[in-house]
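Bumping with the actual sequence this time:
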Amino acid sequence: MVTADSSPAAPPAAGALVVRLRNWVGDVLLGLPMLQRLADAGFDLHLVGKGWARDLLAGHGWPVHVLPKTFGERVRLLRRLHEETAGLRRAASAHRDRPLQRIDALCLPYSFSSALEFRLAGLHALGHAHEGRSILLARALPLERGQHELVVYWQVGDALLGRAAPLPQRLALASSPAHREAAAALRSAHRIGDGYIVVCPFAGGTFEKLDKTWPEFSVFVRDDLLALAQAQGRQVLICPGPGEEVLARSAFGGALCLEGVGLGAYAALLADAALMISNDTGPGHMAAAVDAPLLSVLGPTDPDRWRAWGPSVQLLGGCGRWPARGEVVAAVRETLARSSNPEHASALSPR
């Protein structure tokens, strides 16, 4: 048992850091290890992002301020955060007996406007050189194309801390007690037993202007997955996001449709799933972030840049090639066999 005396000492205060998150679930999760690394180093993080980011990251305990819609409102929010965190920066500087650190913000989006908002708010931001915005940043890092996005974010941490570190093996998204309770309540209300399978046949946005939705997803679920799940006594779940409900009911009617599930509760559901099958989209990254077995079905996406990250991920297709249905069915069978046989799973798992 860990007692108060045996608990690890808290890291020395490194100062407050205002962080503007990216606008997509996958991007936020790929940046999560870097944020946790900074928090572990003693930084007091104050995040700014989309409304869903607060729910998604609640398990980490960082304040998340909802990004306003207009440019002026965003500048005012950042200026307020700059003023509110000034005292924390001064206290950290006095504690460490060194001058105030010049960098007090991270601008993770690549847009010119986001860098301008930080500049007008009086914050000294570190970000990537892009769209001629280097003059607006206190420090601009070169943006190396072709790297995985997690590596890009991780190098932001390297630059801020002044030292490199090995890449993380997993994203390690934390679930809050409230989210675990919400997931348990959903399972109880819908009588969802162990060993369930989750599918995410949706995909927000495109890759190089090409659709990221596997064309055979609905046929695969109807003709292959539901029969396989029924034979093994498993349930198939689908959790549509806003605007996806009609398609979920019409094209995937055999699956149990759970509507209105927040991202935090969704992640907690995924943590106990036997398998997630997903397009290249946010919930796929969520499954990887909670170490759920994930079959990531890719088409145009370049996995070297955007694959879901973690030891539980199996990639199918990518770089312009969609997998055949038989390939996905075989991967489902093999993954479920591993989950049903822990010794077999241990033998095949990455070291």
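The tokens above came from a reply further down the thread. The chain has two domains: 15-161, 177-348.
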